[in-house]
Specification:
262 residues; alpha/beta; Rossmann fold; eight-stranded mixed sheet; 9 helices; 24% strand
């Protein structure tokens, strides 16, 4: 019989995900914000729909990328936008972005919980691709009146099945919609001219039991991931086999798509 699963956050090296220390650690490990697990995502999904709308919005505009990470998504629009500025709180990510920048693209280190270091109305539009929702309280000041802001954020039901199938390895999924509630509150506090939140749900297929553990330990030191693999890979394999399909382990791929007019 396989030993029961345990929560990897009990490891002494565990850092709370999406804290400032966690982002700094992730940047020190890879210098890029990239997911370590392998998966495929069914179309259409929040990521692809968001990308389509951003492509249309940024044409010939001066654009602010909020939470740009290492800048890969920012640079994607360099050939169509007039100018792009990426902002991120993690210095190492920004340094990576600056290494591959283009003439009309720049990057700035800034904490979006504070006023942004730009002039009033400096940008035509902005997008926030899974970046900090705290930015909505400040970015209104730097976007021209009538300008658009697009946002994509993980929804409350993202990966909801994992806590059911792998109890203790994944923490219990919260009841209700705390993520949406917080997002709505910040948008209302910003007092935008128009705002809308659309829920978009698809399916992500995780390709192997090892990828399940890598997802859970994303951004943690190798010591955390290695211990989880050593302790739980056999048990995860057994549970994975019970629920997998020909495409992989199906989990909910859910996002909130924010559309705002300043």
């Amino acid at each position: 019989m396989n030993p029961p699963l345990t929560n990897p956050k009990n490891h002494p090296d565990w850092i709370a995900p999406h804290s400032l220390n966690w982002y700094a650690q992730l940047a020190s490990l890879s210098a890029e914000y990239v997911y370590p697990w392998r998966s495929t995502v069914a179309e259409p999904n929040g990521e692809s729909l968001f990308t389509q709308e951003v492509a249309y919005m940024v044409q010939n505009k001066k654009v602010l990328d909020i939470g740009c990470g290492h800048g890969a998504f920012t640079l994607r629009w360099a050939s169509v936008a007039r100018e792009l500025v990426g902002v991120d709180v993690t210095n190492r990510f920004v340094q990576t972005a600056k290494e591959m920048t283009l003439p009309n693209v720049s990057f700035v280190v800034s904490n979006t919980k504070e006023p942004l270091p730009f002039a009033a109305g400096e940008f035509d539009c902005a997008y926030n691709r899974k970046g900090p929702t705290s930015a909505y309280l400040h970015c209104k000041q730097v976007i021209k009146a009538g300008g658009q802001i697009l946002g994509l954020h993980p929804a409350d039901q993202l990966f909801a099945e994992l806590s059911q199938w792998f109890p203790d390895l994944f923490e219990p999924h919260p009841s209700g919609t705390p993520i949406r509630d917080s997002l709505e509150n910040r948008l209302h506090l910003a007092s935008f001219c128009h705002m809308d939140i659309e829920s978009i749900t698809s399916t992500e297929y995780i390709l192997s039991p090892l990828d399940v553990i890598k997802l859970r330990c994303f951004g943690q030191l190798p010591s955390v991931t290695e211990q989880a693999i050593a302790q739980h890979l056999e048990s995860v394999q057994r549970i994975f086999d019970q629920h997998t399909t020909a495409n992989g382990l199906p989990v909910t791929f859910a996002h909130y798509f924010v559309r705002v007019i300043v």
